[in-house]
Structures
1.
Amino acid sequence: MDIIDEDLITTDPVPFLSQNGVNVQVLRLDTIHPVISGNKWFKLKFHLQQAIEGKYKAVITYGGAFSNHIAATAAACAANDIPCIGIIRGEEPGSYSHTLINARKYGMQLHFISRTGYQHKTLPPAFEGYDYYIIPEGGYSETGASGAATIPYNKSAFDHILCAVGTGTMMAGLINSKAAHASVLGLSALKNHSLLESEVRALLANKDQPVLINHAYHFGGYAKQKPSLIQFMNELFSATGIPTDFVYTGKLFYGVYDLVQQNHFPAGSRLLVVHSGGLQGNLSLRKGTLIF
Ligand SMILES: *Cc1c(COP(=O)(O)O)cnc(C)c1O
């Protein structure tokens, strides 16, 4: 299980984002591993532990062709010698995405199922009746949120914790583990996903906690991008040396920059931006798009 050294995680000041009297620091979860990067390690770790302790024959999980969760699960299972199977949404593509190539390289068996079969999460007949440990789609689960609650940072040093939101599992874990004085603000990577708040709340230990999600920085929707986003990601990298991915963290940092500019946070606020990794996803961009 000890494939990630959580002691390598640093918290770095970001002067480029620290304006209008607000202090912004970034939690570098992206640096811990090139593929099991960022929040995916935290969401997976207790699932892996249960799969190992329960002596399951293999791990099965679900995702799309560009899912960081699929790539991370493949790499984490390989590191623990656990056979794993990825059920991928949609027809088998003529040429595989980098995510799928990576997953296959790590030994994940890939099975493509139709969008309807996928919606019902039916297993291909070959797998029925086996003793598999199933990790829900995208890692959305209480177990995943418990893992995300172990994301390490100095709880007393920040007033606002900011994170990207996909399934909301990481955000739920961050709310469950935050200090009482602090608040967590999620920035959605999805367009108009109005169920997100209730999906996060379903994973909260205390259901009365507010779930604050900003839906303004999706740039057209999940895995969509615009030139203004790419330009910002390049500017951020030039100014800070911090690489971001175009699906989640580029939008997160853009949103933080913009909210700070608009005086959304009172002067004196101490912000922690969670860099949740996902950089392998940038391989699907045309070469030369990003300067890093
Ligand atoms: C998967 C992912 C997220 C979203 O995490 P959820 O727990 O599904 O909300 C955010 N950032 C990155 C880089 C990711 O890969």
Note: The first strand starts at residue 11 and ends at 13.
2.
Amino acid sequence: MPAGRPAADVLAELAAMTEGDADWRGGRTFSLVYNADDDELTGLHDEVGRRFLAENALNPFAFPSLGRMEHEVVDVAKALVHLEGGGGTMSSGGTESIFLAVHTAREWARERGIERPAIVTARSAHPAFAKACHYLDVEQRRVGLRDDLRADPAAMAAALDERVALLVASAPCYPFGVIDPVPEIASLAGERGLLCHVDACLGGWLLPFWEELGEPVPPWDFRVEGVTSLSADVHKYGYAFKGASVVLYRDAEMVRRQWFLFDDWPGGLYGSATTAGTRPAAPIAGAWATIRHLGADGFLAKARVVRDTTRRFQEGIAAIDGLSVTGAPDLSVLEIGSDTLDIGAVGDVMDECGWHLDRQQGGLHLMVSPYHARIVDEFLSDLARAAATDRTGSGAGGTYGAVPPS
Ligand SMILES: *Cc1c(COP(=O)(O)O)cnc(C)c1O
């Protein structure tokens, strides 16, 4: 390890290091950062992050403020998704919320004598389910989509047997932004006494306001009978900084299956409700502060900007020769596809213009956040130019998640 250096030098080094990073502040990224376009909120995040760097949420008895904040964030989330009673916790993100829901389902199944349970998801379900199943030794049965790119309840029904514990619906799915038929999937689960998880990581903090704006929103939350758990990321459309999600259960008993208690250790009784041991406090305080600051009116105002901007993107894309929006997205997340153009080449030109569009199997992925209202025209004119550029794409598989080069 080299010798230490003054903080100012380290900061200068950091500044230089980030020069090649994506310009999210300028609205050039679409899924990795949710830019709320709100300087006051950004300032609040800076302060709260600083204030809660040292605290540890592993033990809420030492820091009751964190226990209280987590409780209040969970309560707000519960009200948003129409959950009365029940329970839940915060987690570090969508992947952990999904991990916890799959884990509680596994424990629930094992209590019923199913040693290696299975879950049924659509092909469009987030890879976090595959990851959770991989870690937890649960089988994932992935079934095809309907023509409208939504999960196919008939295909799910065909995948059921006595080992299946949990059915999954997305609200919406990440690749196409469409909401799965939650009532059909939940009733399929309910009829057989199975669990049903709604992955609202993406939509959980936006759909309630979308509905309030008068937009058509198909049933997706705890108002749907048979939905037993739900995940919703505060660090996406909740505009909190990263490390904040919630997982909720209709039955408070399910939360107990999330706990890990260990009492045979010289260090004493160890208990925790989520996967982390030492648990960062800043994301909890950050989520709490964001919700307090924005409030219902703030979330509604941001939802309006996101909706209006999404329309401008959709209309602009549809007007470009050769490009189209895939399917009929329910929200502010969509894929740009083409039947005639090399969409990889379009992506290459957009990359050269400094945009960071994620590449999917069938097109380019776009996720609208409030800041994008400022760049939509520039984006669309670059996109039109990119579509008119006649060349073959590098096909370079830019991705949403990746492992670092070694
Ligand atoms: C983002 C996302 C996840 C995973 O959340 P992370 O916070 O990235 O771990 C799961 N499901 C959907 C639909 C998502 O959009």
Note: The pocket of pyridoxal-5'-phosphate is lined by residues 93-95, 98, 126, 128, 170, 174, 199, 201-202, 233 (CB under 6 Å).
